[in-house]
Amino acid sequence: GRAWRIEELRLKSFQDLHTLWYVTLRERNLLETQQEEARRMGVRINLQAQIHMAGACRKSMARIKAVMNERRLAYEGAIQLVQEHKEQLKDRQLLQLQRDAIVQAQEKLSEFVTRGRLLKREKLRKLAKAREELRAEGVLPQVVEAEGAAQPEAVLADSVAGEQQVRKSSKTTPAASESSTPTSPNISNTPKVVKVEPEAPSRPQTAAEAAAAGLFGGSPAPRK
């Protein structure tokens, strides 16, 4: 005789709500059919009771539909939450994998640097050990002395070659200057006495100056 309350319907299961909805639908259709048959046959019935019962059926059906929609929305929201949770788990796993990859790369880099340092130390240690063995055998001092003696001989040879080049250039320079001066026809044929001044003794030159003089083909400026 009354409509179902929404608190009562929320306690029902999904299958019970479906069954109750179809029962109220059948009852509403039966009441409407009775009203139409009574009107067609001209029978007087209690219309107020029929209208009240039909309204209660419509209210019950609307409330059942509202409860089912609530459950559907709750189910969809739960599914969405589960999907978001799964996505968050995937993101966390990807971040963890990325962090692990970064840590592994740093470990490999530190291991490579440490290995390089150890190899360098090992090479230096072997080199020092070889030097100690050569010194103990007396080979290393002889090599050092031979290198030290070869350097002054090379410097002396360079200085001698430079001096020879300077002397050759000083001899060829006056002849070239005399040949370049023009002869005048009005000059008398009396021989002129040329006073030759003795050359000032030149100081020994370095190997660098001698090499520069030989390269540019001129005599270097004498030192004062």
From TrEMBL:
<feature type="compositionally biased region" description="Low complexity">
    <location>
        <begin position="171"/>
        <end position="191"/>
    </location>
</feature>
<keyword id="KW-0496">Mitochondrion</keyword>
<dbReference type="GO" id="GO:0005762">
    <property type="term" value="C:mitochondrial large ribosomal subunit"/>
</dbReference>
<feature type="region of interest" description="Disordered">
    <location>
        <begin position="157"/>
        <end position="224"/>
    </location>
</feature>
<dbReference type="GO" id="GO:0032543">
    <property type="term" value="P:mitochondrial translation"/>
</dbReference>
<protein>
    <recommendedName>
        <fullName>Large ribosomal subunit protein uL29m</fullName>
    </recommendedName>
</protein>
<dbReference type="InterPro" id="IPR010729">
    <property type="entry name" value="Ribosomal_uL29_mit"/>
</dbReference>
<dbReference type="InterPro" id="IPR036049">
    <property type="entry name" value="Ribosomal_uL29_sf"/>
</dbReference>
<dbReference type="Pfam" id="PF06984">
    <property type="entry name" value="MRP-L47"/>
</dbReference>
<keyword id="KW-0687">Ribonucleoprotein</keyword>
<dbReference type="GO" id="GO:0003735">
    <property type="term" value="F:structural constituent of ribosome"/>
</dbReference>
<dbReference type="InterPro" id="IPR038340">
    <property type="entry name" value="MRP-L47_sf"/>
</dbReference>
<keyword id="KW-0689">Ribosomal protein</keyword>
<comment type="similarity">
    <text>Belongs to the universal ribosomal protein uL29 family.</text>
</comment>
